[in-house]
Amino acid sequence: MKMSMHRIARMWPARAGWRRRFSALMLTCAALTSACTALPQAKEDVHPEGGSGFTERKLAFAQQYMVSTANPLATQAGLRMLSAGGSATDAAIAAQLVLALVEPQSSGIGGGAFAISFDAGNNRLRSWDGRETAPAAARGDRFMKAGKAIPFWDAVNSGRSVGTPGLFSMLWLMHGEQGRLPWERLFEPAVSIAEKGFAVSPRLHTLLEGNQDLRRQPAAAAYFYEETGKALPVGRVVRNLPFAQVLRAVAKEGPSAFYEGPVAKSIAAAVASHPVPGDLSLDDLRNYRAKERDTLCMPYKVYTLCGVPPPSAGPLAVMQILGILSHTPIAGLAPDSLAAVHLFSEAGKLAFADRDFYAADPDFQDVPAKAMLDPAYLKLRAALISPDHSLGKAPPGDPAAMLARRGRDNAPERPSTTHIVAVDGDRNVVSMTSSIESAFGSKIFVNGFLLNNQLTDFSLSDVDAQGTPVANRVEPRKRPRSSMAPMLVLQDGRPVMAIGSPGGSSIINYVAKTLLGTLDWGLDIQQAINLPNRGSRNSFTELEKNTSLGSLAPALREMGHEVREIEFPSGLQGVVITKHGLQGGADPRREGLAAGR
Fold it and tell me: What's the pLDDT score for residue 413?
């Protein structure tokens, strides 16, 4: 794990003075704090099931198959499908339907998803786009008033934030291509739990307790709160019969039972009757179609990194971060050292600068993904990093002579999402991230489920301060940019890892950190997930609160970083595939479980 500072300096790209300054930095680091080279240590739980508190997780092992999700009930549902001879896709679908019930703050049938899968029989990668779409009536000034963007939370808590849900359409498309068990059977665990009831978890209770906007929606308040207005207590058994009824209908009739008929009418009516009404129509629901897209991949040392392409900017940005870091000595540094945190944050700034200008729905905007991952371009971006001083705010690059035609996006993505990994006995793999956007989405509750607020992932303004059109502006039937980053790592053409996380735009830093931990620092998947979260989204340098990284803040500030210690509750799920079996990890900051047989 350790490497001499002289060897590190020799690894650095040639640039006058860099080796000398980097050596000085290492000496300063050693003098300032032993935490510069300290290995990650588990923290005691300081905020049960939320914030940056840890609930210890051990590395999971299995020989045949494995599932890792954000809730034990969902993991058990996935394992039930695999034990019955189902595929990884069957397991992921069953797990997702349970998560929609027991983790309603994060994902659900009123939202959307992205997934990447590996078909072992055909040795084929596939990427699935179930992202929500803007209504046909949507226009670029949707979230503007008097020529200016309205406050973000005003946009969120309204009917205008609701996009056409894409989850069921995507799951149906995936099952048609990769499912083994009958579609109806995948619904059995979720229907059973909805009818018999599930216990409110500590994390769900905490998020309910702190959410005032959800209380203001009568239908949601009647389900999630007591008559006194208090959040349902931990352990309270909750049944959701309307949700079970929707699931039974979709299990029997397919997605048409959701996108047409009584359910669709209820969705459109709920959006239209909100105090700030939206324009989601029955035609929008009826015409929605999930898509299969070409998978985005990039060579990385002896591996190949693969993920879903835009409109998700997640894998693209993760690949940029790792590609930039491959031109630095970070692989030879201790994970929680001052130099490692500095380099990781600077690479994040560069990747987010590009993301904010170029990432959008490729059906509406040309996204230069190939140029953004070109090794020569990433080397040029890496050359902007100083070993001893922060960039401050990074400028976007110009990978394909496009900058003059793009404005900077101002969409803030909120951290409520979920992730699922499933690997079956034939080594078919699914990595899927799904979301309803901010906690409890739009807060609009209909037929036992919440509707998304994903349209706030569009830029709130259609042009930037200079009047230049923003690539990720609202347009009819367009899909908003996302940071969801379901990814696979391949070696010799076969998956060796599946990874992903919730967390809004922080997903990018969470996944990049974990990949760096496993592929470069030699940690197992659980150790890599456990590493304190860090990074920058081209603004502040963010350190996970109440972790050992806090001791680095003074030295980082000396280097020009504007540091903030924040709650960084990632929800990483990951499975590593080895010749000896499967290893699984689940984020100790949430309630997840990796398990298998």
Answer: 58
pTM of the model: 0.91
- Measure Cα distances from 106 to 16, 93, 270, 419, 440 in Å: 48, 16, 20, 10, 7
Beta strands in 228-288 (DSSP E): 237-238
Task: Identify whether the C-beta of residue 573 lies closer than 8 Å to the C-beta of residue 582.
Answer: no
The pLDDT of residue 467: 80
Among 419, 484, 486, which Cα is nearest to 118's?
Answer: 486
Residues 6+ apart with CB under 8 A from 99: 69, 70, 71, 74, 106, 107, 108, 418, 420, 434
- The DSSP element (H or E) to which 244 belongs, if any, is helix 241-253
What's residue 24's pLDDT? 44
Structure token digits, residue 199:
């216990």
Give me the phi and psi of 32, to 5 degrees please.
-75, -45
Say what the pLDDT of residue 465 is: 72
Sequence-separated (6 or more) residues with CB below 8 Å from residue 429 = 88, 117, 118, 120, 421, 422, 423, 488, 495, 498, 575, 577
Catalytic residue among 37, 164, 295, 417: 417
Closest CA to 419 of 106, 25, 90: 106
Q: What pLDDT is attached to residue 424? A: 98
Based on the residue annotation, tell me whether 295 is a catalytic residue of this protein.
no
3-state secondary structure of 241: helix
Q: Map tokens 């000595």 to a residue.
A: 329
Q: What is the pLDDT of residue 102?
A: 97
Q: Which helix (H) or strand (E) holds 192?
A: helix 188-196
Q: Are the C-beta atoms of 531 and 336 separated by less than 8 Å?
A: yes
Q: Identify the burial level of 254 via C-beta atoms within 10 angstroms of its C-beta, where 0-12 means exposed, 13-18 middle and 19 or more buried.
A: middle
Low-confidence ranges of the chain (pLDDT < 70): 1-54, 402-415
Token pair, residue 28, equals 């300063």
Residue with tokens 């002289």: 6
Cα torsion 389, 393, 395, 396: sign: positive
> Per this entry, what is the length of the chain?
597
| Of 506, 502, 503, 526, the residue nearest 514 (C-alpha) | 526
Q: Give the contacts of 492 (CB within 8 A, at least 6 positions apart).
A: none
Locate 192 and state its tokens: 């059973």
Best CA proximity match to 451, nearest among 217, 241, 165: 165
DSSP letters along 461-530, please? SSB-TTSPBBTT---TTPPPPB----EEEEETTEEEEEEE--SGGGHHHHHHHHHHHHHTS---HHHHHH
Strand partners, 205: none
Instruction: Classify burial at 28, counting beta carbons within 10 Å of its beta carbon; exposed 0-12, middle 13-18, buried 19 or more.
Output: middle
Residue 512 has a CB neighbour count (10 Å cut-off) of 25
Q: State both tokens at 489.
A: 């790592």
Query: Do residues 249 and 257 make contact, with C-beta atoms less than 8 angstroms apart?
Result: yes
